[in-house]
Write a structure and sequence with these properties.
This protein is an all-alpha fold. It contains 15 helices and no strands. The protein has three domains: 59 residues, Orthogonal Bundle (434 Repressor (Amino-terminal Domain)), CATH 1.10.260.40; 121 residues, Tetratricopeptide repeat domain (Serine Threonine Protein Phosphatase 5, Tetratricopeptide repeat); 82 residues, Serine Threonine Protein Phosphatase 5, Tetratricopeptide repeat, CATH 1.25.40. α8 runs antiparallel to α9 and α12 packs antiparallel against α13. It starts with a helix and ends with a helix.
């Protein structure tokens, strides 16, 4: 069983509003608390006992599973939000996020997750770029554990997407590349959805900037991940993006083949909008290619 002593200490400390220095006072040093929470130092029994006394919990509390992965209700909320994001139903996302934020039992991580989606919804519903970006930047915290880092990365991706929507492609590219660097530092992460979202966004931005070969490289990497993980997440989008890049590079026949693959996958996903879009595009491309 994986122990999450540091993560549980950090969760309880934040719930009670203690700083690391305040928790450490009379027990150990602030640096030791920091290293314990990061999982870089195992506390002695005496230190752990004193920490449990100050945090008003039994010592067994610290040996539970990861606090961010043990909340069944919150996992259901996350799944619901992810489904609504695929449908671009931001009004419902905003309603859910605001309702859950009123609960008294959410952790600091859950609060940030909900506020992240609240800001995304505000942007798409009200088109308030500056306010949404500023709010999202304030949600980025110091890298203390992998959950925090991955949430930071997702927040950065959301800001990059907003810049991309506003056609500020250079700013979007900088954020995507920064997020990719951060993701590469996370050891043993299992959130391939975040990686796919990042690679696809990066490839889109590069295409907008006319860097078609670079975009193609990231698309192929995303396709490889989809194949290895046996998932359709972003797979049809990546094949469509690949096809577009090849057409921009004047490789029309190869581009058509990739778009046809994308069309098949969109049919499997029952995405009527994209099926209609690709059918029209293919008719136009075939006509041009036959001339």
């Amino acid at each position: 069983m994986e122990l999450n002593i540091g993560a549980n200490i950090k969760k309880r400390r934040r719930e009670l509003g203690f700083t690391q220095q305040e928790l450490a006072s009379g027990i150990c040093t602030q640096a030791q608390i920091s290293n314990i929470e990061k999982g870089q130092l195992n506390p002695s029994c005496l230190v752990l006992f004193n920490i449990s006394q100050k945090l008003l919990v039994d010592m067994n509390y610290f040996f539970g599973s990861s606090p961010e992965k043990n909340n069944g209700h919150f996992n259901e909320i996350k799944n619901m939000i992810n489904q609504l994001k695929e449908q671009r139903n931001y009004a419902s996302i905003k309603y859910i996020a605001e309702n859950e934020l009123q609960q008294n039992t959410i952790t600091s991580y859950e609060q940030r997750y909900l506020q992240w989606h609240q800001a995304i919804s505000d942007y798409y519903l009200s088109n308030r770029l500056e306010e949404s970006v500023q709010f999202l930047k304030e949600l980025i915290v110091e890298d203390e554990n992998d959950d925090d880092i991955l949430l930071n990365i997702n927040i950065q991706i959301s800001i990059a997407i907003m810049y991309q929507e506003e056609r500020n492609y250079e700013s979007a590219l900088r954020l995507y590349e920064q997020a990719l660097d951060e993701l590469n530092k996370v050891k043993g992460f299992d959130d391939f959805y975040t990686e796919l979202k990042l690679l696809f966004g990066l490839s889109q931005t590069l295409t907008y900037l006319g860097k078609y070969n670079d975009s193609k490289r990231y698309c192929l990497k995303a396709v490889s991940i989809c194949t290895n993980k046996n998932t359709l997440h972003f797979l049809p989008d990546c094949y469509y993006q690949l096809g577009n890049n090849l057409i921009k590079l004047n490789q029309i026949e190869d581009g058509i083949k990739y778009i046809q693959i994308a069309l098949t996958l969109f049919k499997i996903k029952e995405n009527t909008t994209m099926v209609n879009t690709l059918n029209e595009k293919l008719e136009s491309l075939v006509e041009i290619n036959n001339k």
